[in-house]
Amino acid sequence: APPEPLSASQLDWQPYDDAPRGQLCSGRYVTPAYRIDAGDTPEQVTTSADKANYGNDGAATLMGEVVLRRGDAQLESPEVSVNEARDTATAKGPTTYRQPGVLLRGDDARVSLNSDAASVDNGHYVFHKQRIRGDAVQLARLEDGRYRLKDASFTSCEPGNSLWRLVGSDITIDRESGWGEATHARMEMGGVPVFYWPYVRFPVDDRRHTGLLWPQIGYTSSSGFDYAQPIYLNLAPNYDATITPRYISERGEMLEGEFRYLLPNGDEGSLEGAWLADDDGGSDPDDDEEDLIGENRWYINYQQSGRVNANTGYRLKYGAASDGNYFDDFGRNFGETETDSLERLAELNYRDDTWNLEFKAQGYQRMDYPLDNDDKPFYRLPSLTADGRWNQSNGFYEEWNSNVTYFWRDVDETDSDIPVDEAANGTRLRLAPALGWRSDQSWSFIEPRAQLVSLTYDLDYGDRETDRDASTSATIPVLSLDSGLIFDRETELFGEGYKQTLEPRLYYAYVPEVDQSDFPDFDTSEDAFSWNQLWSPYRFSGGDRVGDTNKVSYGVSSRFINDESGRERLKLGVGQSSYLSDRNIDMDGDPDKTSRSDFDSYSDYYRATRDRSPVVFQADLVLNDQWTATQAVFQDFDRGVTESAQTSLRYRGKKGTVLNFGFNREIEGFVPYDDEDEDDVLGYTRNEWDFSFATPVSESWSLLGRYQYDSTNSRALEKVLGVQYNDCCYGVQVTWREWQDDNDTASTVSDDEEKNGIFLTFEFKGLGGVGRGADSYLEQAVPGYRNAGF
Amino acid sequence: LDNDANQPINIAADSLSLDDKAGTATYTGRVEMRQGSMKLDASRVDISRANSGEISLVKATGKRAYLEQKPTPDDKLVKGWADTILYHALERRVELVGNARLEKGDDTFEGGYVEYFLDKRQVNANNSSDASQKSDGSSRVHMTLTPRGANTSKEN
Amino acid sequence: CGFQLRGQNDAPMAITQLDVKAPISETHSALRDALKRADISLSDSAPLTLNLGKVNENVQQVTFGDAGSIKRELTYNIVYSIQRKSDGAYLANQQVLEASSNYYTNDDNLLNTDDVRERAGRQINRDLSRQLLERLRVITP
């Protein structure tokens, strides 16, 4: 039977009279001083007793409050006898055995006199530094310093608090490596067994952050009750694994696994995956999810990266899932449900001061279900890139940018849903050498630049009837002239000395109109207007289009730079472009597209024919170490409309308090859309408010939350509330989330569904391990929030 | 040594006074007594004889009287200090009383009272001759042992 | 109103050479180019060492929802310190350079994401370079 409980003071527990700040526990373990001095040599044994006798054969018996000390070990007992061979001291109970930071109190004990081994029967133990205690039928300290406890218990709760404890037939604790192991272990909460492991390994100090990951319990409207019990197997210093049996009431049992490894040369990688046999279908499968019922649902995600040498690195990735809805249904934390694609990648990259060479084979599995034929992404099989730049001392520079890529995807190209510019597979050769001259003075800069973009295609339209040429090419010059002056003056702001700069900037860009109507669309989209676009000749990202441009951009910015630190306290900017001619090349690449009827929407027509860009106002303020604010406004004075606006206010308190406020406006049609998927066209003007915070409320409680509101459709987009309670030996985090799922359509809100979920994560302190629970999502949802661990 | 008992005893001291009737002799002042390998130094030694004329008790007192004896040719010297040393010659038993300390081999004993049997080489020590002084720490018995096999001089 | 062309009356940059210790990445190459363009020679024997930490990247989603064009904010954060070799004194210790830039991604065009993110990165590198030069301008070795 387990030994009788001991009082707190017998376990070296000293309650605080007033707990210092930040202390969650009501007291601490304090090791008392040794009762007698150690011997001159580590081997010498010193004793103190009321009586001692000592036969010629060397055996000795000590009686009456005996204290025996050998090096750092001390034994106290009413009676101790030393055997003839002088290698063991046997003590009658009740005994107290101490080593630095360890206390064993029990009945009879045996202490080796020529090694550090000792054992105590039927007693209690305390590890002061790790704040761990427990009892055992047999407590043994092995020669190598590990402690083996038979039929033992283990908890980090304060004496008298039996909220949780781990009970095992054989618990071994190795303070050196910071690991504990237990066989036939069961977790008891308030005396009630909660979980059983045949074998479990857990960290006993906080050196290793991920430890025995504790149960994640959740409930979501679509999947019902969801219980996952991760088991962390630290197999070796450089690789470990997490096996997670998981039960979902509306779907069935599944097994998840994650394996991480670190290669000797420093490359690292991981393989994760999950498997569920015949899915029960979830609580409210809508029609197209019907055929997933009874299917096996799985996913796998492998990645490895590292360096071949100082200049050369590589990355390998392969992700696949049984179907596009996998993460919506099984994403364990809210972060995972946002996974929208699984990447496949083999990339080798070389970089030195001049060259950047890259080989890349890349593709994606898109997480949409059902996935329409025309939504399937292209693969780059492969893409070869060679970019070089040479800076001459006289300010001239030359650039060589080149890429050849074979684009492929497995679709029925005759499907009429597929627009003809995405129907072909084929090879694209893109050469874009450039020549420029830049002179930077403290008071000015000027940079004329000329680039020649040559695009050559070799396409295969398969069985698709089209009058487009299979091989087509174009060469398009891109000319630009950037110039600016820099004035400054000494000024004062908030009582400190600042240099305020005034930087007028003038920019001209000319790109002629070149027919690209036969060009495909492999990886290209038209950019939304931005401050950076004012000073850039390009209107497209990706490689398949070079937009015609004939514009002058003008603007002025002003920066306040602290005299001592050189840090920018405030940055203001205003700028605009005047278009000297219309932009006729859009994704269709047809120069004759000029009248209103040629365009699908008025906003596309207006974007191509407007005389002036919106005026951009920008301000970035770093008020102090805690507060930062940014504001951007794109104002079209001709139509008297704010096309886009973004506000952000951030507070980062010292005590971990985080506050974010954001507003984001985007007028319908502000972001150009490719014509093939109407679902993805924003069907309204976006006015979104975003407020999030995380703050400790008291020593034990901390709160976090987020509220996103869509004032155009006057609805709450996302509500998150997280409460975290921290106690001396456990922590619990409850996160509740309610959000709008837009069902992969941006054009309308009518098909949006409201979903909610609650998430519970336990943390038993002293066993390490911060659950993978909702954290990664919360760190995304509340910028600046870092779970400082329980 | 074993044959110490039948070795002649010689004693040097500053002064000697005899009491024939009681059969006792009292040496005082830097007394040094020798018998074979046994040595006894003290500031005062009282010797009393049994009716057979043999020495029965040697009582040595001093600012810690000192006793030394070689138990066997290859053993280390046994040394003892105490305020009063009582040598019961007939029983071959020594009592160290008050502030006692005994060094035997690599072990040492300290305490209020240590009893040592010369031939049996048995040692008993307790905190004081009477139990009353038990609580005061200073009169506790302190014994230091050196586990065999751990020290440099290997017995076997 | 007191504005003059910069550099007319105040002393030129005091730092003329730097020993730059940095990992290899596009950002660190951009920072090196900016230093060279500001006539700072990079040599191992320079009296001051500029230690550039690795680039911490963070992407934050700005617009709600996962359909259509999603606006994301990319932020680069680098910790640097400047040390005088002669006595090991830190002229700047654990200082932070940080800059952000927005970009749009769209599920319909996954291959477009790399290029859009790289261009945002190059814009951030230009901002980080300017910030670094402003910090160096106030340091007297």
Structure keywords:
heterotrimer; B: 10 strands; globular; disordered C terminus; C: alpha/beta; six-stranded mixed β-sheet; 28% helix; elongated
Structural write-up:
The complex is a heterotrimer of chains A (790), B (156) and C (141). With 790 residues, chain A is mainly beta. Helices cover 4% and strands 54% of the residues of chain A. Chain A is built from five helices and 48 strands. Chain A has a 30-stranded antiparallel beta sheet that branches. In chain A, strands 6-7-10-11-9-8 form a six-stranded antiparallel barrel. The longest helix of chain A is centred in the last third of the chain and has 8 residues. The relative contact order of chain A is 0.07. By secondary structure, chain B is mainly beta. The radius of gyration of chain B is 16 Å and the shape is globular. Chain B starts with 8 loop residues before the first strand and ends in an 11-residue tail after the last strand. The C terminus of chain B is likely disordered. In chain C, strands 2, 3, 4, 5, 6 and 7 form a six-stranded mixed beta sheet that branches. In chain C, helix 1 packs parallel to helix 2. The chains are: A mainly beta (790), B mainly beta (156), C alpha/beta (141). Chains in contact: A-B, A-C. Chains A and B meet through strand 3, strand 4 and strand 5 of A and strand 8, strand 9 and strand 10 of B. Strand 4 of chain A pairs antiparallel with strand 9 of chain B, so a sheet runs across the interface.
